[in-house]
Write a structure and sequence with these properties.
about 475 residues; alpha/beta; 12 helices; 24 strands; about 35% strand
């Protein structure tokens, strides 16, 4: 048994299968803002999009905020110093208008999304899909019956232009430009993303999906998503993300704002499979009004560094917020993920369940915030953080910040760290499994209860990504 322990301790990093996303085709672009960030670059983006003056002013103000804010240090990481903003390309697009049929998508872009299986997914189970290639959406379509019900599903450029009475009311209100340095950067150069409005009482039975693809080297993708669920409505939105592997760093810095009005429900599902050169620095937050629910379901695989803490402001009585997350940190990767729950009304409930897997020299971090002020009553929070370490070189940390006051509020926090059992692997191997198959089975068992929370179509994709492909890559 000592020999088995030694083999586990010396196990090399697990290679997650990225063959589906790790490819690149050479592209030509009609619109290119050049390299580096300046007021001129911001003006170029705004001009190309033919935006109104107030949007340009919004962008320029955000750029000044970005320039005035120091790089964040409270995340306790120095890896952010490796981001060279002056070397990044902030806007690349083949065209300005998303088409409505796959036949109209340019052939060189179409083969990328066909290889990723997007058209097939749309046919099988989606109510609408948007596919973004670098800075702009190249395809966007929704089922006609939803359009007849008044559902809006388009990009933010179209939302600002065609639906200003809805869009402008909430744009930048849930996450203002000054929220943090990367929210300010997004506010200055945002392009692409989704705008969704669900009218009162409309329940969208099938998911809406957006797929974000980074194809260019030294590129920054800054999509912005705003989802508004009006009173009593329901919607599930799913996003997938990939990028090919480059030798140079790539930046992904999105902003996502969710608004669930009285009695509405929003479920936001993310499965990302970034390559190991991507800095994934995302700000996501939702507001839940009276009796509303905002639910984040998050899977983070790949990237060099991910910093993502989906939050919910429980602003109405009886509102509910939930974050379910899975993070896998492989060799040379840091998954710094968590959640924020801000209780701002009586009888509100929040739930956080986070599971992480650290492999090789990978590092996973849970960073959470729960705040319940003393003026509230009957508020409840449950937080569970479970970490799995594959070998002695992997690392996990938990940094919960819990502020609870008042006499009638309750919070519970539970955290656990475990290692893969040598005995468990040994006995599975005695039953005919290879070491890789045994390890894969153990890891999938660890996350299985959360995987079941993903929509069926994404749970299959998620299990495929978490399949660690151990044969030939361990031992």
């Amino acid at each position: 048994m000592a020999e088995i322990d030694e083999n586990l301790a010396q196990r090399e990093a697990i290679e997650v299968d990225r063959s589906k996303g790790d490819f690149k085709y050479e592209e030509s672009y009609a619109f290119d803002a050049g390299i580096g960030l300046s007021a001129g670059v911001v003006d170029y983006i705004s001009k190309v999009k033919a935006e109104e003056p107030w949007i340009r002013e919004f962008r320029q103000k955000a750029l000044k905020i970005f320039d005035g804010l120091p790089m964040p240090t409270h995340w306790a990481t120095t890896d952010l110093d490796n981001i060279k903003f002056e070397n990044i390309r902030y806007y690349l697009a083949k065209g300005q208008k998303a088409v409505r049929t796959w036949e109209e998508v340019p052939d060189d872009v179409k083969k990328t999304f066909e290889r990723l299986g997007i058209p097939e997914s749309e046919r099988k189970f989606l109510a609408g899909v948007e596919a973004q290639f670098d800075s702009e959406a190249v395809y966007s379509r929704m089922k006609e019956e939803l359009e007849k019900l008044g559902v809006i599903f388009c990009g933010p450029t179209e939302g600002l232009r065609d639906h200003p009475e809805i869009f402008r009311k909430w744009f930048g209100k849930v996450i203002p430009a000054g929220d943090n340095k990367f929210a300010a950067l997004n506010s200055a150069v945002f392009s692409g993303g989704s705008f969704i409005y669900i009218p009162k009482g409309v329940k969208v039975a099938q998911p809406l999906q957006a797929y974000f693809r980074i194809n260019a080297e030294n590129f920054g993708q800054f999509e912005r998503t705003l989802i508004i669920a009006d009173e009593g409505s329901e919607v599930t939105y799913m996003e997938g993300c990939t990028a090919p592997k480059f030798e140079t760093a790539t930046l992904h810095s999105a902003v996502v704002e969710l608004v669930a009005l009285k009695g509405a429900k929003i479920q936001y599902v993310t499965v990302q499979n970034w390559s190991a050169n991507v800095f994934n620095l995302v700000t996501k937050r939702g507001v839940a009004e009276e009796g509303a629910e905002v639910r984040w379901i998050d899977c983070n695989i790949g990237s060099r560094l991910t910093m993502k803490y989906p939050g919910v402001v429980l602003r109405g009585k009886g509102a509910r917020g939930e974050v379910l997350s899975i993070a896998l940190a492989n060799d040379g990767q840091h998954q710094d993920t968590g959640a924020k729950m801000i209780h701002a009304a009586d009888d509100t409930t929040s739930n956080i369940i986070a599971k992480s897997i650290s492999v090789g020299s990978g590092r996973s971090t849970y960073r959470g915030l729960v705040h319940i002020p003393k003026t509230l009553k009957n508020c409840r929070n449950n937080t569970e953080c479970d970490a799995l370490l594959i070998n002695e070189h992997s690392r996990t940390d938990t940094y919960p910040a819990i502020s609870v006051r008042g006499q009638k509020n309750s919070v519970q926090h539970e955290a656990s760290v475990s290692k893969v059992s040598a005995e468990q692997i040994f006995y599975m191997m005695q039953r005919g499994l290879s070491e890789g198959e045994a390890m894969s089975l153990a890891v999938n068992g660890f996350v299985n209860d959360l995987v079941k929370e993903f929509p069926m179509e994404y749970s299959v994709e998620l299990k495929r990504l978490i399949e660690l492909q151990m044969e030939g890559s361990v031992g």
